[in-house]
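Side project, low priority. Logging it here so it doesn't get lost.
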Amino acid sequence: MTIATNIENYTINFGPQHPAAHGVMRMILELRGETVERADVHIGLLHRGTEKLMEAKPYTQSIGYLDRLDYCSCLNNEHAFVLAVEKLLGIEVPKRAQYIRVLLDEATRIMNHLMWLGAHGHDLGAMAMLLYCFRDREELYDAQEAITGARIHPFYYRIGGVAKDLPNQMPQYAPSKFRSKKKLAQLNKARQGDVLDYLEDFCDRFVNQNMVEYKNLLVGNRIWKGRVVGIGVVTAERAIELGFTGPMLRGSGVAWDLRKTQPYSVYDELDFEVPVGVNGDCYDRFLVRLEEMVQSAHIMKQCIAWLRENKGPVMAEDSRVTIPQRRDVKEGMESLIQQFKVFTEGFCVPEGESYAAVEHPKGEFGTYVVSDGANKPYRVKFRSPGFAHISATEEMARRHMLSDLVAILGTQDMVFGDIDR
């Protein structure tokens, strides 16, 4: 006897409370059994009006807002904004400041990818990856704190350069009853020199030891490959149509990287490769990001070598944007007035519009600025990479299992401050 069974689709909420939903995203899923028929993504739960807030403040005071967008890639966000304003002002940034920017951009890229790798691994059951990745991120955050004075929101780039030069000494751990002398010596071993020595030591250990461990743990792991190979496939043509950039685009086989195709700062003076995938699935995007970290370390070592050999100013010699030396402020009324005006009123930017984009860890992050000649922008608009990627969620997830959706969301490397501005 045959019994006819009628299976109907049903609808469930995925997020925002679910940790795999990556923060304040709500997704309404239409499922047929465990197969995703439709994924309707809802955003708007984090909207903070960043662009409107920046239109009400002087240019320099707005840089801190960029740190709150993609809080895993603060300095890359800052870089795009200052480049756009520098275009309008016609300012030439000193070479040393440009090398410092590139050094910190690549350190931030590694920090972002480590955050992604740890969270993505944790989402798919590789729980140890989160601990290992945070171990390495802490070392880079120590360097960022030494250079900028802040761990999470550095507010370090300035229109015309950077806030201050690199410090000559790396802070060391103090003796404590909770760590032995042997452990203390081990922690401070790489901190005997300056920040450049510390970062060079990190790059060597990261590439030769830690990245080897990560690859041994996951690249050939059959459980890991079972979760990501063939999942969320996007062809090269379709990735371009969907507006993908960064690792999402390069994972589909398109060799597009703004550091190569539209070089900014000093990227055209540096030697590095652009990793490109073949199949356009979650596994290829994973491999692309792994190799990008290796290439970032390679770029950092080139910047370190240049910065050691070349001293110089880190801010443009332009009275509109540069504050005077402390000695001059204490001795001259004109310098005191200039410092006061730069910090309070800011500076007026010539009328016009400009767009500047950087190769953000998540893709192309662009800043469009319109000036009406005032000391604050008339209009600011950001082109965030994550918005295009999350828009493709339904297409990437359709006909996949519910558990595959977690892998697809993880491979997009989304941060909602960047998407839901």
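Brief comment: The chain has a mean pLDDT of 89.
Revisit when time allows.
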